Amino acid sequence: MKYVTIMKFFVYNKDITKETIQWLHSMHVTGPLHKDCIKGGNSMKHQFTKYPGNVPENLEIGFEETWIYVHYKMGTFEKTACLLKNENKSDEAYLEEFFEENKVSEEMKKEIKEFLKNEKGQNEKNWNEFANFLMKTLSLNMVFGITIALSVYGGYKLGALLDGRYNFYPVFTLIGTFLGIGIGGLTVYSMVHKYFKTPIPFRKEKEDSLFSGQKDDKDYPVIDAGIEEVRNAVRKFSDNLPKGVYRTILVLEDNSIDFQQLTSFLGGIPSKKYYMSKETYDLFEESDKQIPIEMDLVQKAVDLYVKEHKEYPMLKFDPHHRVNYYQLLQDRYLKAAPEIQFYITDLDGLITHIRPQKKKLDNS
Question: Which pTM was predicted?
Fold first, then answer.
């Protein structure tokens, strides 16, 4: 398998021939890759996520007329590609070569194949609906024309008959003609309102099916799990991670733990929320959820301070080894003093919110 490397992207191709190079030039893919390909094209992106071996696997695909944009990430491995569609092959065949080359998991391959199959079926369904709509529109246009013509003709003939009988020409002829136009227009309006109005029940059913598809996640039982059980599950999860992937992938933006990734170790979703520090990996219950947020900020500040000053930000004769917020604020490692007091431990400069015990202080 060969591929042309251009900046951080590469153009996938089975055989880099003279014809391929000419095709690249015709697509303006010379030097830096075409800007549309770098941006992933203009089409809507489709994102897929799997967790093979408890490691998040992400795939993003965008389909263009002349290429397929692919962004793949698993752990620390990441690859972005534009698959050139210069052979008479299906999209699935192009993606299969990329999957084999980058060792994409079988679960992800299966989901992509199902997506492509459903997408093809949806395209055929949309085309059939359009064809039916077109035939329906053409048929109704003919009906509209005939309806108006018959109404006008009937009104004209009726008016002409009355004019001939009562000798008022062209009064009844004009009245009959305009009356025919009015009746014809009203009939056409009624038909348009009946056949072209959007069916609300169908639209609601379609929306319901769309939202139900988003809730297709597996339902796990709710369990009572203590903090020690959660700590053991996190430890087992971490032991199974590949090199270069850390347990911080469990931590959400609010520092709560994503228990979806721990269900195989816990057997369900805990009924209570637990929180984790991304810097120290300490666990906390709901009542202490503010601690990991401030702990991460202070730990980062302490690490930067030690890196630049080669000493810890604390008073030299402080037996508790409290983090000196004044030093961190003065050098702008912190924007504001935290409400919680943290202490520097002997474990490679890690901090803790637990005040050292008196016994340990006496031995120091």
Answer: 0.42
Q: Which residues pair with 343 in a beta bridge?
A: 322, 352
User: Angle formed by the axes of helices 91-102 and 106-166, to 10°?
Assistant: 160
In this structure, how many other beta carbons lie within 10 angstroms of the beta carbon of residue 117? 11
Report, as ranges of residue numbers, the positions in the chain whose pLDDT lies below 50: 1-18, 20-21, 23-25, 27-35, 38-40, 199-217, 359, 361
Structure tokens at 197: 């109005």
Instruction: Report how far residue 102's alpha carbon sits from residue 83's, in angstroms, rounded to the nearest whole number.
Output: 13
Q: Exposed, middle or buried: residue 216 (CB in 10 Å: 0-12, 13-18, 19+)? A: exposed
Q: Where are the alpha helices (DSSP H) in the chain?
A: 18-26, 35-38, 91-102, 106-166, 171-195, 200-214, 227-239, 263-266, 290-309, 325-330, 358-363
> What is the per-residue pLDDT for 218?
64
| Residue range 53-69, pLDDT digits in tens | 667 888 888 877 777 88
CA atoms within 13 A on the CB side of 331: 13
Q: Which two tokens stand for residue 85?
A: 């569609």
DSSP state of 247: G
> What is d(CA 171, CA 157) in angstroms, rounded to the nearest whole number?
13
CB 276 within 8 A of CB 292: yes
For residue 120, which phi and psi values (nearest 5 degrees)?
-65, -45
**Residues whose CB is less than 8 angstroms from the CB of residue 222 and which lie 6 or more positions away in sequence, other chains included:** 268, 269, 270, 271
Rounded-to-integer distance, Cα 265 and Cα 235, Å: 10
47: tokens are 């994102």
**87-146 residue pLDDT tens:** 777 878 888 888 888 888 888 888 888 888 877 666 666 666 766 676 666 666 777 788
CA distance 77 to 87: 28
Cα end-to-end span (Å), the chain: 64
DSSP sequence for 21-87: HHHHHHTT-SSSPPHHHHTT-SSPPEEEEE-GGG--EEEEEEE-SSEEEEEEEETTEEEEEEEE--S
List beta partners, residue 3: 12
> For residues 33 and 6, is the Cβ–Cβ distance under 8 A?
yes
